[in-house]
Amino acid sequence: MANLYRASPKDGIAWVTGASSGIGRGTALELARRGYTVVATARRVQELEHLASEAKGLSGRIVPATCDVTDPESMVWLVERLEREHGDIVLAFLNAGIYFPLRANPFDAEAFRKTFDVNVYGVINGIAAVLPRMVKRKRGQIALNGSVAGYGGLPRAAAYAGSKAALIAMAESLKFDTDLLGLTLQIVNPGFVETPLTALNDHPMPFLMKLDEASRRICDGFEQGGFEITFPKRLAFILKALNLLPYRAYFGLIAAMTGWNNKAP
Ligand SMILES: NC(=O)c1ccc[n+]([C@@H]2O[C@H](COP(=O)([O-])OP(=O)(O)OC[C@H]3O[C@@H](n4cnc5c(N)ncnc54)[C@H](OP(=O)(O)O)[C@@H]3O)[C@@H](O)[C@H]2O)c1
């Protein structure tokens, strides 16, 4: 794609949502290591302050700020304030996300609402706060944190996989416009990464990756550009290939691979 903007710490600051733990925390630290001033946001301020202290001595720095991604107005104000105080946001990693393992019975509609509120509307609120500013400056890079779980349905993931599928399709659709605007839009689709979120899983997690390695891969992907940042490649490839199969084969193989055949309804 011709001349899409690629972020650099010389041009401005980075913003990472969901930076109080897991992938957001690891990526914020890695970006600070690579020279960025990183505004790290989440709801738990104490964790963000610890993160800022941990970044002392790196070539960049971390500025903590509280923010609930489900509150659209406060996100707009936050971005206005951050840019006034620290400079233009050239890289936004909209990462905050939650996961509840769910079954069909009992059906928990509230858990679906919460999941879509954070994983989908939280990302939409972030785009709405930062994209118009980037469009005006003709300079900006936005990455959404999806998941390989968004490629297709998985046991216990109706809300989570549904929310991530929405992000992938949303990013694909927006890219037609952001390309014309010269901005970079990316989707990050990690496989399993060791974080508090995956600590909830009691099923096998093939190719589980350490957080530091995942954070480096994400930041390499920001630097390299391209639409999708996904890892480990083997898992992404297997899941994409399974999704090309007829449904009968897809359901059978996924159930066998996850041990789902043995679960009581
Ligand atoms: N770990 C994996 O294997 C994996 C794989 C694929 C994709 N992902 C995606 O990666 C992202 C991060 O996951 P993780 O594994 O790092 O989980 P995590 O350690 O549980 O971190 C989730 C982050 O989201 C923040 N958050 C949750 N609700 C929020 C809200 N309403 N407003 C603002 N921040 C909120 C949390 O901060 P506060 O609670 O302080 O607000 C926390 O910083 C998620 O989008 C997840 O779907 C993870």
Enter the CATH topology name: Rossmann fold
Strand and helix order: EHEHEHEHEHEHEHH
CATH superfamily: NAD(P)-binding Rossmann-like Domain
Beta-strand portion reads: 5-15%
Q: Sum up the overall morphology in one term.
A: globular
Q: What bound compounds does this protein have?
A: NADP nicotinamide-adenine-dinucleotide phosphate
| First-last Cα distance | 48 Å
Structural class designation: alpha/beta
User: What's the quaternary structure here?
Assistant: single chain
* DSSP strand count: 7
The tally of structural domains comes to: 1
The spatial strand order of the largest sheet comes to 3-2-1-4-5-6-7
Number of DSSP helical runs: 8
CATH class: Alpha Beta
Task: Identify low-pLDDT runs.
Answer: none
* Overall CATH architecture: 3-Layer(aba) Sandwich
Biggest pleated-sheet summary = 7 strands, parallel
Average of per-residue pLDDT values:
96
The Cα radius of gyration reads 18 Å
Structure overview:
The chain has 265 residues and is α/β, with parallel strands linked by helices. The chain is built from 8 helices and 7 strands, in the order βαβαβαβαβαβαβαα. The chain has helices spanning 22-33, 45-54, 72-86, 109-137, 158-181, 211-224, 233-242, 247-258; strands at 13-17, 37-42, 61-66, 89-94, 141-145, 184-190, 228-231. It has a 7-stranded parallel β-sheet with strand order 3-2-1-4-5-6-7, with helices on both faces. Strand 1, helix 1 and strand 2 (37-42) form a beta-alpha-beta unit. Helix 3 (72-86) runs parallel beside helix 4 and helix 4 packs parallel to helix 5. It is globular and about 55 Å long. The mean pLDDT is 96. Bound molecules: NADP nicotinamide-adenine-dinucleotide phosphate. NADP nicotinamide-adenine-dinucleotide phosphate binds next to helix 1.
